[in-house]
Amino acid sequence: MAKLLSDALKYELAQEMGVAHKIKGNDYGNLTARECGNFVKFALMRAERAAAK
Questions:
Q1: For 17-23, which contacts have Cβ atoms below 8 Å and span 24 or more sequence positions?
Q2: For 26-37, what is each residue's pLDDT tens digit?
Q3: Partners of 27 in beta bridges
Q4: Residues 6 or more apart whose Cβ sits within 8 Å of residue 8
Q5: 44: part of which helix (H) or strand (E)?
Q6: Domain ranges of the chain
Q7: Is the C or the N end of the chain the one with fewer CB within 10 Å?
Q8: Between helices 7-17 and 33-52, what is the axis angle to 10°?
Q9: How far is CA 25 from CA 20, 21, 53, in A?
């Protein structure tokens, strides 16, 4: 997934989730496993919405 999403989009998703403060540059290592799972869920939901348009 990392290569498919731009850094800006990943940061925007993190902001929507409320975890952007845990991200340091391109390091997402401070996210919990649950937050990572939710991150993927948010990305998939956004892709599905974009495909439906």
A1: 17/42
A2: 888 899 999 999
A3: 24
A4: none
A5: helix 33-52
A6: 7-52
A7: C
A8: 110
A9: 10, 10, 31
